[in-house]
Amino acid sequence: MKNTLTQLNTSKLSGILLVITATACWGTSGIFIHNIIQKSGLSAVGLAFWRDLISSVVMLTGILITRPKLLIVKKKDLPWLIGMGVISIGAFHVFWNNSVLMLGASLATVIQCNAPIFVTIMARLLFKEQLTIQKIIAIGLAVAGTILVAGLINEGNWSITARGLWIALSSAITYGSLSLFGKKLSTEYNSWTIMFYIFSIGTLSLFLFQSGKPDPWPTGSGILGWVLGFVLISTILGFGLYTKALSILPASTASITATAEILFASVLAYFILGEQLGIWQILGALLIISGVVLVSLSRDNFTDSMLSN
Predict the structure, then answer these.
(1) pLDDT band of 166, cuts 50, 70, 90
(2) Segment 227-259, tens digit of pLDDT
(3) What total of structural domains would you count in the chain?
(4) Domain that holds residue 261
(5) What is the 3-state secondary structure (H, E, C) of the chain?
(6) Among 9, 72, 223, 285, which residue is least crowded by beta carbons within 10 Å?
(7) Does residue 63 form part of some domain?
(8) Residue 11 lies inside a defined structural domain of this protein
(9) 3: in domain
(10) Phi, psi of 129, rounded to the nearest 5 degrees
């Protein structure tokens, strides 16, 4: 029993590190989105379409070269893959791009950090995961920390439109669904199998949404480098690591830990975009770290989840 617990704790640490690394990759997305839209004039839907299409092509090429058998999936899992592709990838990317454009990155990020709340509640209903006191406190710390890091305490500007709020909440819900759908599939398939199918399905859904007439390929000085960085770092590497982590961690734990993204996004914005970190942002960062550490110490829920797999 002691050896089993040791193995579980080691696996848990690996899962936490995978999620944190994934959030570091996702933290770069704001910089890429800012530069791509500024240089190319793409719409939010257009950027989402090209992001998903290029990611799908890159992953298909890699799979065909290395392990073609990864393309095989069971018919019974197609509804989950379709749901994940349409909702967790296609819809999420559109909602997220639009929420940033309408509300600004700070407020959009704050609202999106409600995702762990949706995940924790739905994981309880779908996967019977325990809703522990530790998770509730961790969610509170993560949300409070995100508000401080975003700088809204200093600005005091909470005026948003009903449409903007709806889009931002939709971003949080669709983002949270990645953990729920991914948890169902991650124990059955390699993470790259899941990634290829959901991004391909996401691309198709965005193509149909635009009535078969997506924005033209983005052009502009240095735009190719920004697009490739967005695809390889923020997308393929970030989502690949996170999907792999879902085969190790409970969905709610992975989702709460992923709130560490705001830390990396803030640090990168400070060094690359010249944004200043004040006392409120530093305090918020500490609260987020505390939430991540707290949820990482929730042994019982993780053990139950691993033993049931």
Answers:
(1) confident
(2) 999 999 999 999 889 988 888 887 777 877 887
(3) 1
(4) 18-308
(5) CHHHHHHHHHHHHHHHHHHHHHHHHHCCHHHHHHHHHHHHCCCHHHHHHHHHHHHHHHHHHHHHHHCHHHHCCCHHHHHHHHHHHHHHHHHHHHHHHHHHHHHCHHHHHHHHCCHHHHHHHHHHHHHCCCCCHHHHHHHHHHHHHHHHHCCHHHHCCCCCCHHHHHHHHHHHHHHHHHHHHHHHHHCCCCHHHHHHHHHHHHHHHHHHHCCCCCCCCCCCCCHHHHHHHHHHHHHHHHHHHHHHHCCCCCHHHHHHHHHHHHHHHHHHHHHHHCCCCCHHHHHHHHHHHHHHHHHHCCHHHHHHHHHHC
(6) 72
(7) yes
(8) no
(9) no
(10) -70, 145
Separation between Cα atoms, residue 172 and residue 193, nearest integer Å: 25
Tokens 């991004």, located at residue: 199
For the segment 208-224, what is each residue's pLDDT rounded down to a tens digit? 988 888 888 888 778 99
Q: Find the angle CA(103)-CA(107)-CA(109) to the nearest 5 degrees.
A: 110
Query: 7 in a domain, yes or no?
Result: no
**Is residue 304's pLDDT more than 70?**
no
Statement: residue 275 has pLDDT above 80: no
